[in-house]
Design goal:
The chain is α/β, with parallel strands linked by helices. It contains 5 helices and 8 strands, in the order βαβαββαββαβαβ. It has a single domain, classed as HAD superfamily/HAD-like (Rossmann fold), CATH 3.40.50.1000.
């Protein structure tokens, strides 16, 4: 397979495995050097997650994965007024939901394919130069709509097959 310039990763069950900590630590010990190698070869590494607090989960990892990413995309916190405006005028999608923790705020989740398109534009990268890793086939199928992009469906029990 042709080497990709842009590697886009989901967080949960792709970078950070759930389950037993021994399995997670072993996975991280293989994943971190592989990602360091990609970065050292000039690849751009970006994290795209629907996780509301990616910094907390990245801090729990045994290695400093956060330093490998050029950018981290996660949900946006907005006020109720902004939410109503978006909901009524722009966003007509089930990906917008109200959080239980704070009834004054909403979190807007951008569909992964739209986020990926924005990233490709921002970095001026052609889809054939990019690869997207996710454990959720809904996200993989959405991103596959971007003609030319490579996708990897990650087994959440195993992680990326390195």
């Amino acid at each position: 397979m042709e080497e990709k310039l842009l590697h886009i990763f989901d967080l949960d069950d792709v970078i950070r495995l759930g389950g037993l900590s021994e399995k997670r630590t072993e996975y991280e010990s293989r994943l971190y050097p592989w990602m360091c190698n990609l970065r050292d070869k000039g690849c751009i590494l970006i994290l795209v997650t629907h996780n509301l607090n990616p910094d907390k989960f990245l801090a729990d990892l045994s290695k400093d994965f956060k330093s490998l990413f050029v950018e981290i995309y996660s949900p946006v916190k907005i006020s109720y007024t902004q939410y109503r405006c978006l909901r009524e005028n722009v966003i007509k999608t089930p990906n917008t939901y109200r959080t239980f923790e704070d009834f004054h705020f909403y979190y807007v989740q951008t569909p992964k394919d739209l986020t990926i398109r924005c990233i490709l534009r921002k970095y001026n990268i052609k889809p054939r130069q990019a690869i997207f890793y996710d454990d959720y086939d809904f996200n993989i199928n959405a991103v596959k709509k971007i003609s030319g992009i490579s996708t990897v469906l990650v087994d959440p029990n195993v992680g990326i097959n390195i």
